[in-house]
Design goal:
This protein is an alpha+beta fold. It contains 3 helices and 8 strands. Helix content is 17%, strand content 18%. A hairpin with a 2-residue loop joins strand 3 and strand 4.
Length: 168
């Protein structure tokens, strides 16, 4: 019973945090085109009204949004958490992390969904496979790690498989 209550509580917190908080001043609501327009990368920031923003906007409109008071402590690979996660492409602010989720994960592999700053010392050898952002000179295009957390702590690792990496 406690487990069910905990799951319901987590779902309520996550759903509340994933909603867009309305602009602080509704008289200054810009259009979507205005929100996303930019000239240089420095114009773009993550949408301030979301805990885990997947959209970037022009920083000129930052004050039009109310920041959430509380956010959950989860990390989404596709969220833009800082201005460096945003860029100006074809005069539109884009989330650079949104593309990271588009690479296919092979059957039997586990996608990295958590980027731990601190991992346990557990020894459970895995092979951390790099995404297409890494150009490898030799196969496998991967790195040995002592456990899944250690593998996924490397931002270039997209997924992991059980056991050490096999060399050709």
């Amino acid at each position: 019973m406690r487990g069910v209550l905990l799951i319901v509580l987590v779902m309520v917190v996550l759903s509340a945090c994933s909603q867009i908080v309305p602009p602080a001043d509704t008289t200054k609501i810009p259009s979507d085109n205005e929100l996303s327009s930019c000239v240089v990368d420095e114009d773009c920031i993550p949408l301030p009204s979301q805990c885990h923003p997947t959209r970037c906007i022009n920083k000129a409109y930052e004050d039009s949004f109310q920041k959430p008071d509380v956010c959950t402590e989860i990390y989404l690979l596709t969220a833009a958490y800082s201005p460096k996660d945003c860029a100006c492409e074809n005069q539109v602010c884009i989330n650079l992390n949104a593309q990271k989720d588009e690479e296919p994960i092979p059957e039997g592999a586990t996608k990295c969904t958590y980027r731990g700053e601190a991992c346990t010392r557990e020894y459970r050898p895995v092979c951390g496979w790099f995404g297409s952002s890494v150009q490898c000179i030799k196969e496998p295009c991967a790195v040995d790690a002592s456990n899944p957390c250690e593998a996924c702590a490397n931002e270039d690792v997209l997924y992991w498989t059980e056991g050490a990496c096999e060399t050709s």
